[in-house]
Q: What sequence folds into this?
């Protein structure tokens, strides 16, 4: 696309158009972050949608100022209470168009222009972009094997918000330890900061003990929890949820209404019934089984390349894992070479905000069917093996 002439965009617009830009959607084997939408029960979904459109009464076509369709909010609350140990009433659920909108709402309501937000380094680009768009100052905080790890240098940049993916850090896959969770909450308390927990893929846990939400440990109501239907249903459904502490509920609902004019009530009603009738749990069960097999095939294919300094992180959960590589490897060039074989992996260094010590490949196993993973896994492994002499 032609670059806009200087001055046509605002400084913020210029930054938004050029920084943390998602690469074009390439749906090929190993593209991270993409689920297999072909498994979605379309016929059933169509039937439910038709039913709810037939039953739609005029109110359902209006904007909605209550945080979303009440039965859907109840269904989300029941699910989160049982499966994610989130402490909530349905009244605290705000249905959004996904994590992006949840993040922007939090940034607009809880921070002022120029306030500091701590963001994990490496980071989820979508979050960094939402904070840029809302005029916050991003302070990258390094992630290690136990999750985000703020030190004295970070405390010198007191945060107003702390954004993190504690259950499965995006993209390294690190699971935040219990000790680190308690530390983080007390650091947030010391700074008077809000914590934004992005629990984007906890529906898929394949090994290791179950992990509860960080919100479940929060005793003073400073964690805002967000999730999405993008990974279990399909991204284009554009539905997610934000759980806000009770004292913020009224302000968030009002601002959501004023800023976003939410609606889509017939769609929300169809989804509520999809969950209530057990179709969501069945879809999840089938998806877990299928992604589990794909994950196992990918792990098997990568076995021959593993050494002391080429190892896998974050494979216990989600739809991607991270193959960590020695610091001297050019992971961007490697990802490009792999792309020439019709496979998409993302270089870990491309997610880094301020650090230069992380190299690796972020590899998804959600999109491609098992047979494709079995066929392409060895191709991927062969490309990795070519990076140099024995490491
Ligand atoms: C860390 C993280 N959060 C959220 C999302 C997606 O959220 P949504 O589609 O609801 O905006 C993604 C998508 O890949 C993600 O990687």
A:
């Amino acid at each position: 696309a032609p670059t806009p002439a200087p001055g046509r965009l605002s400084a913020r617009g210029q930054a938004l158009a050029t920084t943390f830009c998602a690469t074009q959607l390439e749906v090929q084997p190993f593209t991270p972050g993409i689920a297999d939408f072909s498994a979605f029960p379309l016929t059933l979904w169509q039937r439910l949608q038709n039913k709810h459109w037939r039953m739609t009464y005029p109110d359902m076509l209006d904007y909605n100022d209550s945080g979303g369709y009440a039965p859907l909010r109840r269904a989300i609350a029941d699910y989160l209470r049982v499966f994610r140990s989130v402490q909530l009433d349905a009244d605290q659920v705000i249905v959004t168009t996904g994590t992006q909108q949840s993040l922007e709402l939090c940034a607009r309501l809880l921070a002022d222009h120029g306030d500091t937000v701590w963001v994990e380094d490496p980071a989820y680009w979508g979050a960094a972009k939402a904070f840029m768009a809302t005029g916050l100052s991003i302070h990258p905080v390094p992630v290690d094997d136990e999750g985000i790890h703020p030190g004295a240098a970070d405390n010198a940049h007191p945060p107003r918000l702390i954004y993190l993916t504690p259950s499965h850090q995006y993209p390294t896959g690190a699971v935040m330890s219990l000790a680190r969770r308690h530390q983080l909450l007390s650091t947030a308390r010391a700074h008077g900061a809000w914590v934004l927990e992005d629990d984007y893929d906890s529906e898929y846990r394949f090994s290791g003990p179950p992990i509860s939400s960080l919100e479940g440990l929060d005793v003073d109501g400073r964690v805002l929890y967000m999730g999405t239907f993008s990974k279990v249903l399909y991204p284009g459904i554009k539905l997610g949820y934000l759980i806000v502490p009770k004292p913020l509920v009224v302000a968030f609902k009002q601002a959501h209404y004023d800023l976003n004019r939410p609606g889509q009530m017939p769609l929300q009603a169809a989804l509520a019934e999809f969950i209530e009738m057990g179709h969501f749990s069945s879809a999840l069960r089938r998806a877990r089984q299928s992604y589990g097999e794909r994950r196992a095939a990918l792990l098997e294919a990568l076995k021959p390349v593993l050494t002391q300094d080429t190892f896998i992180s974050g494979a216990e959960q989600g739809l991607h894992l991270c193959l960590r590589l020695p610091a001297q490897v050019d992971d961007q060039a490697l990802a490009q070479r792999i792309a020439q074989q019709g496979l998409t992996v993302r270089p870990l260094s491309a997610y880094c905000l301020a650090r230069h010590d992380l190299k690796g490949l972020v590899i998804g196993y959600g999109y491609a069917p098992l047979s494709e993973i079995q066929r392409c896994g060895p191709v991927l492994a062969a490309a990795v093996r070519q990076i140099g002499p024995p490491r």
